[in-house]
Amino acid sequence: MILVAGPYRSGTGDDPRKMEANVRAMNETALALFRAGHLGVTGEALALPLLEVAGSTGPGDATYEEIFHPLAEQLLFRCDAVLRIGGPSEGADLMVTRARGWDKDVYTSLDDIPAAR
Q: In a 3-state reduction of DSSP, which class is residue 15?
């Protein structure tokens, strides 16, 4: 199981269309991982529906801060590795730092990921 970590809000000015494009890029990468025999996951896939149900009014509100990155960290803890994609992102860089601290593999390219066992 590999966490795909990339920008969500970074560089978007919180424009929903740009954030949606970032989520799509992560989902496309997760799909490529799946087709290569891995289980690619994103924190956004779990966090965004929870944020909606919890009544978040938008990125950066108290509910977002309570759920978004903490959920991704919990998910990462259960993953075998992280794949860092995209441009600048404090959140994605945090996932890389956490992964290294937990002695998990960190990849920066799909081509670097070993074949699924």
A: coil
